[in-house]
Specification:
Length: 179
Amino acid sequence: MDNTQDKIIQATLEWIQNDDYKKLSMRKLAATIGMTTGAIYKYFQNKNALFYQVSIVLSRQISEELTIDSKVSPKNNLLSLAESFCVLIQKQPKLVNFLFFNPSLDDFYQNMNHDFEFYDLVMGLVHQVNQGGITDQQFFTQIWSFIQGYSLLILKEVADYDPSLVELTLDEMIGGSKK
């Protein structure tokens, strides 16, 4: 990646860590990093293209922070990822909101390509845990819906993180995915 492109991505990441990504315009971003708006458009066709690239970088960073331990079961690795995600959403809610809900990801959600390391990491574990009664994508949707919903409840202080509840829920989902 070119230094200027990296500078733009890093400035965007800093913005979304501290403010609502919806408030970011290419003009504001350009002013923040001392560039012209035209210079940013040289590297990114539009804000969605920028956000998509930032999402890829963020996914890679999260994947690098979350370790998968080959010595423990895939289920336990999923439980560890769920806990890490619940902690991350408490520490960096704006970043997580951006990563999962920014509009540049619509195409990804429709096609599920392999641009996002975090998604691939989770899908690898899902494949190992899925009992085969439903597709891996359906099983991923169940697990991920629970983790995101639960972490939002924690963020809003409606619930406290309870590892036994997460494990019980995952066990029920695994049992429900049997042939």
